[in-house]
Amino acid sequence: MILTLQTSTFGAYGGIPTYNRLVCKVLNEFSEGLEKVVLIATDNPSDVKPQDAELTNLSIEAFACSKAAFIQRVLGIALTRRIDLLLVGHVNYVPLALLLRRLQPELRYGLLIYGVEVWTRLSLARRRALQQADFVVSISEYTKQQAVEVNGALEDRIHLLPNALDSDAEGYASTLARRPSSIGVRLLTVCRLDKSEKYKGVDKVIEALPAVAAQVPDVRCFIIGSGTDVERHKELAKEFGVADRVHFLGFVDDVVLHEQYQMCDVFVMPSAGEGFGFVFLEAMQHGKAVVAADSGGAPEVVRDDVTGVLVQYGDVPQLAEELIRLCLDPELRARMGRAGYERLQTHFSFPRFKETLSGILKREVPAASIYTARRRALFNAGQVR
Q1: Would you say residue 384 has pLDDT above 80?
Q2: Alpha-carbon distance 75 to 358, whole Å?
Q3: CB-based contact 281:287 (threshold 8 Å)
Q4: Alpha carbon distances (Å) from 28 to 33, 163, 267, 304, 355
Q5: How far is it, in rounded angstroms, from Cα 236 to Cα 234?
Q6: What is the pLDDT of residues 266-293, one digit of tens each?
Q7: Over 70: is that where the pLDDT of 123 sits?
Q8: From CA 7, how far away is CA 223, in angstroms rounded?
Q9: Is the pLDDT of residue 371 over 80?
Q10: Could you give the CA distance from residue 370 to residue 35 in angstroms, rounded to a whole number?
Q11: DSSP per residue over 214-283, as a string?
């Protein structure tokens, strides 16, 4: 059995839920004869039910944020069934792996890491569990290095697996065809606006807008996302005299989200805390130039002066200068958008993700387990005795 523990998967939007969905899709197609069970801590059963028809080779259970029920189910499986490989989808759950290893000494486990959760020193229990993992899967090289330098992860046990888009339903060509005219220059930001995530840099975009507007009179900024820090950003827009240029759209559904990507001219999120930056992929999918901070994992996604622009986090004059340059040069934006779309297809597609993760699984699942599973399948088919 491959047992996978995840946080949120089908009931939330964002980089980690997307990553988890891709992992589920690869596991569903992983044809080594092993049973595959996915336990999702924060999803509701109603979030999971629609997946039954598509992920037919997985057994998926959701626990609606019931920590006790989640842990009880994990331990119940470990006490009654052999686990060939444990995939831990967040560092918060990795101490469970050491507990399960006490119950099953031959257990192998891997940990998936994404960003800020491993950039600072972990608690002793989590740090030990990270260090003793048979392997680690990191979303970016930056996160990998932070896990090594800050928390003592073993570098030679870490695989790189960047995030990806599952499909290309809204391609670059259709984006240009649908772009409305005469609506001014539109900037777009998509992120959570929580007090705990001020590093996203949305406040710096607002602070840069007066200088941008002086050179680009018809510039507008659209911000998608909700959270505990929305009011502070609205007050900041008033303070800097750009409240009429900044439009807070809150949480939107997928249809509106894609419409906003299609209509924008530049995507901007100069964040200092992105382990990867899934929203950059969404912007690239729509052929948009991206402005990001030269920080965290963002430079591994956005190529400076090729697919977008990297600025120093917190440098408002530089941010304003680069936004002005892009706003005033539609040919430059188009060239960067094309390059971003091509980079997305080459490096961040689901086939690439599937190939990499399947290779990791084939390497890390014990060979004896695969052999036994195949023999069992042949026996059940009446081909061996």
Answers
A1: no
A2: 27
A3: no
A4: 11, 18, 34, 36, 13
A5: 5
A6: 999 999 999 999 999 999 999 999 999 9
A7: yes
A8: 26
A9: no
A10: 11
A11: HH-TTEEEEEE--STTHHHHHHHHHHTT-TTTEEEEES--HHHHHHHHHH-SEEEE--S--SS-HHHHHH
Query: Which residues face 188 on adjacent strands?
Result: 222, 267
Q: Name the residue among 267, 275, 272, 229 with its Cα closest to residue 248.
A: 229
What's the chain's average pLDDT? Answer: 92
182 CB-near residues (< 8 Å, 6+ apart): none
Q: What number of other Cβ atoms are within 10 A of residue 370's Cβ? A: 16
CA atoms within 13 A on the CB side of 179: 20
User: What is the per-residue pLDDT across 184-228, written as a single tens digit (0 to 9) for each?
Assistant: 899 999 999 999 999 999 999 999 999 999 999 999 999 999 999
Backbone angles phi, psi at 98, to 5 degrees: -65, -35
Can you list the domains of the chain with their CATH numbers?
2-164+349-380 (3.40.50.2000), 172-347 (3.40.50.2000)
pLDDT tens per residue, range 296-346: 999 999 999 999 999 999 999 999 999 999 999 999 999 999 999 999 999
Token couple for 155: 């570098």
Rounded distance between C-alpha atoms, residue 57 and residue 29, angstroms:
7
Give the separation between CA 79 and CA 96, rounded to whole angstroms: 13
Task: Please say whether the beta carbons of 108 and 101 come within 8 A.
Answer: no
DSSP, collapsed to helix, strand or coil, labels residue 55 as: coil
> 74 Cβ partners below 8 Å, 6+ apart?
3, 5, 39, 96, 100
Closest C-alpha to 134, from 88, 183, 190: 88
pLDDT in tens, 49-70: 999 899 999 999 999 999 999 9
Beta bridge partners of 250: 224
Token code pair at residue 131: 């260090």
The span from the CA of 237 to the CA of 254, in Å, is 26
Burial class for 211, CB neighbours closer than 10 Å (0-12, 13-18, 19+): middle
Rounded CA separation 212/230 (Å): 22
